[in-house]
Amino acid sequence: MEAAKMIALLDKLNSVHQELISLGQRKTEAVKKGEMMILNALLKEEDIHTKKLQQIDAERTMHFGSRTLSDIMASCASADQERLSELQQEIQLNYETLKQVNELNQQLLHQSLQVVNLTLDMMMPEAEPVNYTKPQMKGYGTAGTSLFDSKA
Fold first, then answer.
1. DSSP class of 1
2. pTM for this one?
3. Which end of the chain is least crowded, N or C, by CB within 10 Å?
4. What is a single Pfam family found in this protein's UniProt entry (predicted)?
């Protein structure tokens, strides 16, 4: 009973991770092509999937509390242990893939932002002040004030 419920939860989790990987890859293409409307739609869709992950985790916590997958596997039949182990490996692999896709997207967005900033700097360079400005005084005190009193 416990194993079947955990297998179902891990299947859902794995499925959502695969959908997130697909979304991440679509986001990569949208960023490369500069399609901001598509990127915004993908971000909204990603938000929905993130909420699904939270629901799955809440369901897992409700059914199993603080018990770990290892605890549950120890009390299962060998066939269930094998299936749980397979799912665990698939989820770990999907998690790493998702992490790599997200890191690539972050790098692409950072580079895009740098290009935008460079373009803006080229279009609107900072102008030198037109008015004369008095050079800043260095050292102690203000202009005309000495560190010691020479009349003493």
1. -
2. 0.77
3. C
4. FlgN
